[in-house]
C-alpha cells in the first residue's frame, strides 16, 4: 500500500476570507484609521539594525506558526529561508560597516550577496576589534554560513524556483529542511552577531566622546 502524500491543513486567509477585488480607491502605501496597524518607517537614524531585525522577526513569526499549526511547511519554507538569509547578510554587512568606522578604514561596503565572502571580510575585523571574544563560536558561524552559501550562493535559491538559465535553484538532492532546526541555529548565530553589534555601537560611542574631547 502506498503511503499517502502529506497534504497540509489549509489556513490561508485567501481561502477563509475573501478580501474582495481591487477598486480605484485602493492604495498600498497609506495610513488608516486603525492606527495600531500603521507601521512607522524612516524613524530610525540608522536603518541597518531595523532592517536586519525586521527580516529575522518575520522569519521567526512564520517559523513559529509552522511549528504551532503543523501546516504549510512545504510552502512557507521558501520565504522563511529567504528572510533568514537576508537577515544574516544585513547583519554581517552592518558589522563590516561599523568595524570600518571603528578602525578608521575608508573602504567601501561590499555590495555582493555572497555570505561566505562577506564573512571572510567580517570575521577578521571582529577579531581585530575584540581578539579574545567568542573564538570558537565565530569559527562555527563561518562553517554554518558556508553551508548556507552552498545551498544559496547568491540569495536567489529561495526567491526563484529556477536560475536565469532555467536550471533548478535548489539541488535535487536537497529533499527536506527542518524549519524548527533552521530557526534554532540562526537564533544561535544571532546571539553572537547581535551581541557584537551592541558592543561595537558602544565602542563607537566611546570613540565619538574621545574625538570630541581631543
Characterize the structure shown:
The chain is an all-alpha fold. It has one domain (43-213). 58% of the residues lie in helices and 0% in strands. It has six helices and no strands. Helix 4 packs antiparallel against helix 5 (135-151). The longest helix is centred in the last third of the chain and has 35 residues, at 179-213. It is globular, with a radius of gyration of 21 Å.
Write the layout of secondary structure elements.
Elements: H1 13-16, H2 47-69, H3 73-102, H4 115-129, H5 135-151, H6 179-213
Helix pairs in contact: 2-3, 3-4, 3-6, 4-5
Summarize the structure.
By secondary structure, the protein is mainly alpha-helical. It has six helices and no strands.
Query: What Rg do the Cα atoms give?
Result: 21 Å
**Helix run count:** 6
**Number of domain units:** 1
Gross morphology: globular
Q: Segments where pLDDT lies below 50 for 5+ residues? A: 1-10
Structural class: mainly alpha
How many strand segments? 0
What distance lies between the first and last C-alpha atoms, to the nearest angstrom? Answer: 80 Å
> Could you tell me the strand content as a percent range?
under 5%
**Share of helix among residues?**
55-70%
**Average predicted local confidence, pLDDT:** 91
Could you give the order of the helices and strands? HHHHHH
What attributes does this structure have?
6 helices; mainly alpha; disordered N terminus; 214 residues
Amino acid at each position: 500500500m502506498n503511503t499517502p502524500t502529506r497534504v497540509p491543513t489549509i489556513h490561508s486567509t485567501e481561502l477563509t476570507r475573501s478580501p474582495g477585488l481591487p477598486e480605484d480607491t485602493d492604495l498600498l502605501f497609506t495610513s488608516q484609521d486603525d492606527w495600531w496597524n500603521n507601521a512607522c518607517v524612516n524613524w530610525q537614524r540608522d536603518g541597518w539594525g531595523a532592517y536586519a531585525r525586521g527580516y529575522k522577526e518575520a522569519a521567526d513569526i512564520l517559523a513559529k506558526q509552522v511549528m504551532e499549526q503543523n501546516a504549510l511547511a512545504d510552502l512557507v519554507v521558501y520565504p522563511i529561508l529567504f528572510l533568514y538569509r537576508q537577515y544574516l547578510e544585513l547583519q554581517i554587512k552592518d558589522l563590516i560597516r561599523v568595524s570600518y568606522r571603528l578602525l578608521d578604514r575608508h573602504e567601501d561596503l561590499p555590495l555582493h550577496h555572497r555570505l561566505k565572502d562577506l564573512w571572510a571580510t567580517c570575521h577578521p575585523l571582529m577579531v581585530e576589534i575584540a581578539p579574545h571574544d567568542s573564538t570558537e563560536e565565530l569559527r562555527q558561524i563561518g562553517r554554518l554560513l558556508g553551508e548556507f552559501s552552498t545551498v544559496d550562493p547568491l540569495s536567489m535559491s529561495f526567491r526563484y524556483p529556477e536560475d536565469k538559465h532555467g536550471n533548478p535553484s535548489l539541488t535535487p538532492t536537497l529533499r527536506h529542511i527542518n524549519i524548527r532546526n533552521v530557526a534554532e541555529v540562526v537564533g544561535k548565530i544571532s546571539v553572537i552577531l547581535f551581541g557584537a553589534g551592541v558592543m561595537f555601537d558602544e565602542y563607537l560611542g566611546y570613540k565619538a566622546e574621545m574625538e570630541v574631547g581631543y
